[in-house]
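## Example record

The block below lists the input lines for one assembly entry, exactly as stored, with component labels intact.
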Amino acid sequence: MATEAQTLSRKRQRRLEEFIAPFRVAPGTKVTLAKDFDPAFKGGLNKKKEGVALLDEGVQLLAEYQARLAAQDTWGVLLALQALDAAGKDGTIRHVMSGVNPQGVAVHSFKVPSSEELDHDYLWRYARRLPARGEIGIFNRSHYEEVLVVRVHPDLLDRQKLPPRTKKGDIWKRRYRDINEWERHLTDNGFRVVKIFLNLSREEQRTRFLRRIDLPDHNWKFSSADVAERGHWDEYQKAFSEMLSHTSTEWAPWYVIPADRKWFARISAACVLVKALIDIDPRYPTVTKKQRDALQEIKRTLEAQAPKGAAPDPFEASGEAPAAHEHEHAATGGNGHPG
Ligand code: AMP
Ligand code: MG
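Predicted structure tokens for the full assembly:
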């Protein structure tokens, strides 16, 4: 019989799946961003209040799953976050990851490449920042910049020092293929790639830029470069549409999340990440009979070392169960990593 927790999680799971289904880009479909995805969509949720409760639930679930992912130490998760300026990447990361153990998460922000980075192939700098097994890695901007900003600004491609003949033909199609194959390789080796695009409307971006100018505390976030990029709006929309059309795969599909409402974007991103973890279903390592016997042997040795007057095993003496986290230590300790 399913325990209450399992039943609950199956119910939650179904709700989650239904909630994120409209955001998933079906592999092989041709996407036209403006026509296919509405930045103001808030499907299912009418009030921010409902959303806040759901976000709390999502954050709590993430914390649970992340602890198990780390303990199992087998799978890693890479979350690639892409968006236009002011779409809310930073706030999404802050809120979604608010409940997880910082030891299990690494966030990397990718900016204009350094000269060392330009001296390597274009995926090198991203590969160096991949999560380890048991970790969640977040890319704040990602390898997808290589088919976005670099596509919109051809001078950036020139700076990449590519041999001329590697630029012949359709370099973007080749990059989509490279990226798809790279992500397939990662997936096949135990690294789940989760891709989120925060889809902001042009008018909402304008409003958010004005807010950054009007509120002194927000001035630091405003960069005149962002306004210059806004001038390339249509080219970006086209580059995003092409990226979504060519790189949403069965092993690493894109999720296009409506970002005009920050609270809705945060919930949706949390749900997409939780869903990936549910699919992985990480478990705490179990202890074999042999490992249990070995632990008992060690226990006897430790008990024999009790100083005069001390209980050989204070937990047994008090009849008090050790705290939950000590149970976990015992379980992982049996996995070949004592202490
Ligand atoms: P921000 O995220 O506001 O700190 O800005 C980072 C800047 O780095 C943005 O303007 C990006 O377009 C730019 N950037 C990120 N990746 C690349 C790349 N591969 N090539 C050129 N510029 C990039
Ligand atoms: Mg910026």
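The pocket of magnesium ion (ligand 2) is lined by residues 85, 223, 226 (CB under 6 Å). The longest strand covers residues 191-199.
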